[in-house]
Amino acid sequence: DARVRGQTGVLSERRGSYPFIDFRLLNNSTLSGEIGTKKKVKRLLSFQRYFHASRLLRGIVPQASLYLLDEDYLGQARHMLSKVGMWDFDIFLFDRLTNGNSLVTLLCHLFNVHGLIHHFQLDMVTLHRFLVMVQEDYHSQNPYHNAVHAADVTQAMHCYLREPKLANFLTPLDIMLGLLAAAAHDVDHPGVNQPFLIKTNHHLASLYQNVSVLENHHWRSTIGMLRESRLLAHLPKEVTQDIEQQLGSLILATDINRQNEFLIRLKSHLDNQDLRLEDAEDRHFMLQIALKCADICNPCRLWDLSKQWSERVCEEFYRQGDLEQKFQLEISPLCNQQKDTIPSIQIGFMTYIVEPLFERWAQFTGDTPLSENMLNHLRRNKAKWRSLLHKQHSSSRSIDHSGQVTGSQEQTLNKEETP
Predict the structure, then answer these.
(1) Is residue 271 part of a domain?
(2) Is Hydrolase a UniProt keyword of this protein (predicted)?
């Protein structure tokens, strides 16, 4: 059921309210009562972890070890946080070290590092409550669109906010908006794309009239949680209204259907050299670009990290394709596991989406070490996917018309198979 939050009727549509298809096919959870109980326990345990983590961030040595996480894990997590601005940050490892609480732990740390808690006079308990709500509203059963992806995007956003060309002009409000938008940009993602929601007459598609359906939902859900947590309730009403609108503008910018719109505008600004970052409007535009980069930066990471993300996003595509096949719907592009291979999907994504955006971002930042590092990773990763695709094609051609494979060929196929 849709719940109305706030005086303006912000809707926060919850999981499980999909009248046309039982989305429990994608989620093996049992009865809702059990889910509710587990969430309450998880909130309690997260709260305990928070109090311990907050002591660590303030440099207080704990008197006794935490029951849930041993000191080795906590020490490694603390060490990783000291290097949170490094591009080789391993979010998968960090999520394991924080017992699945990477998003909450990361955001608490970054709000502290950027001085946002002091500047906006935020209550730490309320901040944590809000972040737990956000983290729990991500679907952990999604291979890709989950809280770890949100944490990864947030860490990338932190790196981009430190780029000198941008950092020299950012206000505390800009920084808070950028981090909040990154953390919540995919909240309550159902694991399927907009065309799927439209062709199955999902209520979200009707609510948002088939326009930026998921992004509108992520934004509205975020505002609902902000209001419910009362994180910003102490600020003047006009300030909170401005924050809500700017969050919407940032999150809506992640709609991949608007990619060309933003690229054309960015190219125009760069060619004309008319970006004035002293102006709030131009700073907001570059925050939109930074969030778009953070959202699709996986191909610019180290190969081991990039490959994991590639496999995860394709697994999510394939799950949608299986669901479409089950309900006798046309299988969406990139969602047919029999035809759409991971290398071919990634090469196309890098060529037409990632490269044009990151080349412009490097032009904006002035070829900083970070931008050059990202582009180098992007080129190397693309070359590796091309090599894997070539090997796949060579292996396919080695199979005879009867479908039989020789012993040596079978060994090659198994070795080169991409999950």
Answers:
(1) yes
(2) yes
Total domains in the chain come to 1
- pLDDT one-digit tens code per residue, 269-285: 999 999 999 999 999 99
Residues found in the chain: 419
Domain range enclosing 371: 76-394
Tell me the percentage of the chain whose pLDDT exceeds 70: 78
Higher pLDDT, 370 or 32: 370
Binding-site positions read 145-149, 185-186, 295, 346
Q: How many CB atoms lie within 10 A of CB 235?
A: 15
Neighbours of 17 (CB within 10 A): 13
The pLDDT, as a whole number, for residue 36 is 53
Q: For 13, phi and psi rounded to 5 degrees? A: -80, 130
Catalytic residues: 145
Tens digit of each residue's pLDDT (9 = 90 or more) over 106-162? 999 999 999 999 999 999 999 999 999 999 999 999 999 999 999 999 999 999 999
* In a domain? residue 71: no
Could you tell me if residue 401 is inside a domain? no
Is residue 131 situated within a structural domain? yes
Cα–Cα–Cα angle for 285, 259, 282, nearest 5°?
A: 10
- Count of CA atoms in the C-beta half-sphere (13 A) of 39: 17
Return the CATH number at 293: 1.10.1300.10
